[in-house]
Amino acid sequence: MRILFVQPAPFEPGRLGLENAIWLSEPAAFTSLAAMVPDHECRILDLRLEPDSALNRELLAFRPDIVAVSCMTTDSYQAMAILQCAKNTLGADKVFCIAGGHHPSLAPYDFHQVSIIDAIAIGEGEDTFKELVAHLDQGGARRKLQRIDGLCFFDGAEWVTTTKRAQSRSMDSFPLPDRSLLKKYSGSYFFMSAMPMGSLSTSRGCAYDCNFCGIWEFYEKKVRFLSAARICDALEAMDESFVMFLDDNFLTSQKRLEELCDEIERRGIRKLYGAQGRADFVVKHPELMARLRKAGLTLLISGYETNDEQGLAALKKSSVADANKIAAKMLNDLGIAIFGIFMVRPDFTHADFDFLYQSIDEMRITLPIITIHTPLPGTQLRKLAQGNLLTEDVRFFDLLHAVTPTTLSREEFYTRFTEGWAKREWRNAPFLDFVKKRPDFMKITWRGLIHLTQMLVRYRPVATSPESHLRDEIGIIPADLTVLNAREKATDKAPIKTAPLPSSSKGLRIISDQAAE
Ligand code: B12
Ligand code: SF4
Questions:
Q1: How many CA atoms does the CB half-sphere of 142 hold within 13 Å?
Q2: Are 269 and 232 spatial neighbours (Cβ–Cβ below 8 Å)?
């Protein structure tokens, strides 16, 4: 069978998003899924790196039997638009359309559109996809998928959800991702100036249960690891000198990380790495952190969220402000760049903003990533926020828009929020300290600096302008909305306004693109 995997692009030029300037990750879901069906002809189309016409061109040239999309909440309209385009171009009965990933798994009802979607993959996809492809290849009916676990499909009368796919298979038993399918994009993926960058998932799931995060719900609070030997096999197969580990919580088991350091040393692998991990783990394992640094760990993304104890407790973060401060000091001393994620809550007052920005400065964060507390689908927070949502339009769930009422006026809120980005130049003192400490990183990434500079020139004016955010809300969230009048206004106007499905994969514009042009 011919299978086309399509990665959605941000839906308008100039849209704010991590992939614009900070982190463009390779579509790892597709390389994993494709590795499960080696007897079939697979192609990956990454629309973030393609011109507008690429989707149509590829559909007509390749004529796939299956078109598969993967999406987070924010990509969902685009994912649907891609599948609609495939159906319209190739014929509804000629192409089988499937969506998978975090949003379809946690909110499958958003994809119940009979004319566009044949099936929704729920949860981990490898075995589900393999069984589905085998079924279709053997001429199985597209509306008789009951025997395949982990699917939701329309059986002609209603949407049916099959048995939950067990997510217990050992990670080592999966084939390594088929990265050969990304050859045409080789050199295009990046983390800041680290370009080219390889991407690798070394674990799945998380044992914590922060109430704003869906990862532990997705993986049912279980954690599985790729063995050190398998990780090193994958690293050795990569040409890139910089590799980003995709795990949501790379710093989990001390034993597995020690084994990884042993194996990297034993094989003499000389690459640099980035990962995501918790501050409290850093604090508890100073020797291991030094060892990881020696093995190549160069940057760590940590969800510090806030230094306010009550705030941390309300997020069920299971950590304390002191851990944030100590971890930041340890990482700075080690020469590991800190990408600290901080959270602005919609109920923030001016004093709360002041406190947050002061903490960030005191902690000497290399690059603070300031986000807005957002009740993403499938999270505990979403259940709490349900009656309080100002919109369910998925484009607003990018952690850069307040989807619940703000205490300050919207204008004041976004002015203070964007100030957080505006005040922090990337060439700040903590960054320059890091540069001095890590000539090894600068040596392999100096070419990427040109790309990074171009991206920052392009997107910084958007990220730092409150007007971008306010403009997006026009017609969806009343501008003068505050906590006191929010509920009343929202109910008057019916709180939920969802934008219509776009007719083309780059059809939507919500965030200011003037600055980018
Ligand atoms: C890399 C990454 C990104 C990349 C882009 C990812 C990409 N697709 O290329 C970047 C940096 C751009 C990004 C941005 C954001 N991200 Co992000 N990201 C990740 C991360 C760390 C890894 C994704 C990955 O490659 N995983 C490895 C692959 C193998 O796993 P997978 O994608 O889940 O795929 C498996 C299954 O889902 C399924 N599957 C997936 N697709 C399909 C398709 C089919 C057809 C089938 C059958 C199965 C299937 O099978 C796969 C194999 O088992 C995840 C966390 C995580 N560990 O997954 C967060 C995650 C996906 N991101 C998240 C979020 C919230 C964001 C942001 C909104 C906020 C932010 N973090 O700043 C932004 C939004 C960007 C925007 N444009 O608005 C959330 C998503 C929640 C949600 N409800 O959608 C996650 C889960 C993190 C979290 N802790 O909550 N992200
Ligand atoms: S935010 Fe991080 S630590 Fe908390 S549950 Fe999600 S992945 Fe785990």
A1: 14
A2: yes
| pTM of the predicted structure, to 2 decimals | 0.93
Half-sphere exposure of 139 (CA within 13 A, CB side): 0
For residue 342, is it within any domain?
Answer: yes
Q: Which of 138, 168, 198 is the last residue of a domain?
A: 168
Domain end position, chosen among 136, 168, 200: 168
User: Looking at the domain assignment, is residue 129 inside a domain?
Assistant: yes
Ligand 2 center from residue 424 Cα (angstroms): 26
Whether residues 140 and 25 fall in one domain: yes
Residue 41 DSSP symbol: E
Query: How many domains is the chain built from?
Result: 2
Range of the domain at 140: 2-168
- Output the 3-class SS for 149-172: CCEEEECCCCEEECCCCCCCCCHH
pLDDT tens per residue across span 393-424: 898 999 999 999 999 999 999 999 999 887 76
| Contact criterion met (CB below 8 Å) for 511 and 474 | no
Q: What is the pLDDT of residue 477?
A: 84
> Which segments of the chain have a pLDDT < 70?
11-20, 424-427, 479-517
Ordered alpha helix ranges (H), 341-409:
350-363, 380-385
Q: Give ligand 1 pocket residues (Cβ under 6 A).
A: 10, 17-19, 23, 25, 27-29, 32-33, 68, 70, 72-74, 98, 100-103, 106, 121, 124-126, 128-129, 201, 213-215, 246-248, 376-377, 398-399
Query: Which residues, including other chains, have CB under 8 Å from residue 105's CB and lie 6 or more apart?
Result: 121, 122, 123, 218, 378
Q: What is the DSSP letter of 305?
A: E
**Of all protein residues, whose CA lies closest to atom 33 belonging to ligand 1?**
101
User: Domain check: are 104 and 151 in the same one?
Assistant: yes
| Both structure tokens of 308 | 């306010």
Structural tokens at position 407? 């205490």
Q: Which atom of ligand 1 is nearest to the CA of 107?
A: 83
If asked whether residues 20 and 155 sit together in one domain, one would say yes
CATH number at residue 96: 3.40.50.2300
Q: Is residue 407 part of a domain?
A: no
39 and 111 both lie in a single domain: yes
pLDDT given at position 437: 94
Residue 497's identity, in one-letter code, is K
148: in domain: yes
Q: How far is CA 449 from the centre of its chain?
A: 23
